[in-house]
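Human: You know discrete backbone vocabularies at least as well as I do. Show me how you would write down a chain together with its backbone fold. No explanation is needed for now; the record alone will do.

Assistant:
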Amino acid sequence: MDNSRQRRIARRLEWVIVALFGFLIGSLVVIYLIVPEIYTKALLQQVVAVERYTLVGLLFCLAVVVFVGILIVGVMRHWRWLFWLLLFAFCCSLLQIPAMLLQMMKILPGEGYPVWYSVFRMIVAAGMAGIGVWMIWVYRRYGVWGRRGMVEGASMAQ
């Protein structure tokens, strides 16, 4: 097995996941700035006509940003348990697509989100499922985080 190829694949997986998390944080902030009512609705609160940006919505966004930041640290440090958690979550995100389609067709009770937001969530879910499939491939070929046979103390930056 070519060790440099394994390192490249492991590094690529790491950076794709970190880039996805960065994209999700950016999306969270942009959606909060443009349509903060989505987060108020997600938190099951009444939309107050006077206040467009609620403190609860802001705290929710900040909590998500902190949580994703911790996930980024875990990806960069190759936490084994996080690999399995992300693999499960990414593969299960595929279930969002049919659920959203059924909500948009009014077969399932919908959450009342705008259509653009539902389509955006389906696209992100498809991307996450693709990363999940890639993670399975990397695991089967190179182990957790693509590091089978690598010295644990070795730097990935080589």
About this structure: The helical segments are 3-34, 37-42, 55-76, 80-92, 96-104, 115-142.
